[in-house]
Design brief:
Elements (H helix, E strand, L loop, with lengths): L1 H26 L2 E4 L6 H7 L4 H8 L11 E4 L4 H7 L11 H26 L9 H13 L3 H12 L26 H15 L7
Antiparallel strand pairs: 1-2
Helix pairs in contact: 6-7, 6-8
Length: 206
């Protein structure tokens, strides 16, 4: 009788121990290693968890996770992770690092373009006494057309008179540009460059 009671107690204790072990496994947190292409949303679905729970447990900001990162999955179950491994295709995720790189590239390109434009437009300095050399330098560098060609055009159109206006056509300035009605020497140069880029030398019948 004593042996029988001892056997019952031992069996009961073992069963209770298995029950506790099963309960612990079901509720214990799971450690997961992030793979390329993973997202917090996908991992939460894989482990029957939530995005907020995973991000809170791992101090994740902006949903950013990186391959190789170890995540603690609250209330995760290793059984489901094992059965679904390799079957879930996570949606593509743009990492913050990629976003930062693209932002940096765009900023750098903008800076380079600005610097290039500034250099081309300030290759010479206009002082008033060097109008001819300044204008020819600007036009040649900004259009690729030789300074001698621009000199012939300006000589023909205005005889290098920056304020002259054609009374019949309304054309104005050094280049006798019909698209402006006034402006400084610099403004006339800018307008002539724009006209060249839109119409080419045909704007001056060449």
């Amino acid at each position: 009788m004593k042996k029988f009671v001892t056997t019952i107690l031992a069996t009961t204790a073992a069963a209770f121990g298995l029950f506790l072990a099963g309960t612990t496994d079901a509720s214990a947190a799971t450690t997961y290693t992030v793979k390329s292409g993973d997202s917090v949303w996908g991992i939460s679905q894989e482990f029957n968890s939530t995005i907020n729970a995973i991000e809170s447990a791992n101090n994740i900001q902006g949903h950013l996770i990186l391959p190789g990162q170890q995540l603690t999955i609250p209330d995760g179950t290793t059984t489901k992770a094992a059965t679904t491994a390799g079957t879930y295709s996570a949606p593509a995720q743009t990492s913050q690092a990629t976003t930062n790189y693209n932002t940096y590239s765009n900023t750098a390109n903008t800076a380079n373009n600005t610097a290039s434009n500034t250099t081309s437009s300030s290759a010479a300095t206009y002082t008033g006494s060097n109008m001819k050399s300044y204008v020819l330098s600007q036009m040649a560098s900004r259009t690729g057309v030789s300074a001698s060609t621009w000199n012939n055009i300006i000589q023909r159109e205005s005889n290098w008179q920056a304020g002259v206006r054609n009374s019949s056509s309304g054309a104005y300035g050094l280049f006798q540009n019909m698209h402006i009605s006034g402006g400084s020497v610099q403004q006339q140069v800018d307008a002539a460059v724009s006209l060249y880029h839109s119409q080419g030398m045909g704007a001056w019948a060449l």
